[in-house]
Design brief:
Order of helices and strands: HHEEHEEEHHHH
Strand content: 5-15%
Bound molecules: FE2/S2 (inorganic) cluster
Shape: globular
Oligomer: single chain
Largest sheet: 5 strands, mixed
Structural class: alpha+beta
Radius of gyration: 21 Å
Number of helices: 7
């Protein structure tokens, strides 16, 4: 009888780790390319026939930002590792925690689950873009300071962005409505009562502003 052949499976390499590695490698390559590229090449380079256009302009926090983006790159990766906007946090990196929430055309989105190429013609706002040019905090940011509403605050940028987006459409919510509206955000410190108190104060601040 012919013995059954058992093929060994590679261990330690998951699909998730593989994708992360590809993104990290691309970020390093893109970053290094900036070191050796002159401004005329940056704005004037053409694409070879059949090539995917990687150099694109994003509108982030009211500014036009030129950036080299891989076609499989998420917005969270671009914001944090290409544009240096590290206020956007990466928690789960799979649409579960909301730490990466940004506004896209005023609507909250998980930036870990949006491909950067899909936001070319849209306006992206991160936590860094909320304050006024003179440094005045956004009313919801000020409420966080006033209420000290977070423990470690890793989840804070995501909660603030979700709340700002929710309040744009619902400026006068009840506590229950706000809790439901930002329920896509999780806090590992489970400090929800204090967070909701701060966000309700933010709503009040926005109505006064
Ligand atoms: S990091 Fe995007 S939802 Fe958790
Ligand atoms: S305050 Fe620590 S994760 Fe929310």
């Amino acid at each position: 009888m012919t013995p059954i052949q058992i093929h060994e499976q590679p261990t330690g390499v998951t699909r998730r780790k593989f994708i992360k590695g590809v993104i990290a490698a691309g970020a390093a390559v893109s970053a290094s390319s900036y070191l050796f590229r002159g401004p005329e090449q940056l704005f004037g380079q053409g694409s070879l026939p059949g090539a995917v256009e990687r150099l694109m302009t994003l509108t982030v926090n009211g500014q036009q930002r030129r950036v080299d983006v891989m076609k499989q790159e998420t917005l969270a990766m671009t914001l944090r590792y290409k544009l240096g906007l590290t206020g956007t946090k990466l928690g789960c990196d799979r649409s579960e925690c909301g730490a990466c929430t940004v506004l896209i055309d005023d609507v909250p989105h998980y930036s870990c689950s949006i491909l950067t190429h899909t936001v070319r013609a849209k306006k992206v706002v991160t936590i860094e873009g909320l304050e006024s040019p003179d440094g005045t905090l956004h009313p919801v940011q000020q409420a966080v300071v006033d209420e000290q509403g977070f423990q470690c605050a890793f989840c804070m940028p995501g909660f603030v962005m979700s709340t700002v987006g929710f309040l744009k459409a619902n400026p006068n919510p009840t506590l229950e409505q706000l809790a439901h509206g930002i329920s896509g955000n999780l806090c590992r410190c489970a400090d929800y009562n204090k967070i909701l108190t701060a966000m309700m104060r933010g709503a009040e601040n926005m109505r006064r502003a």
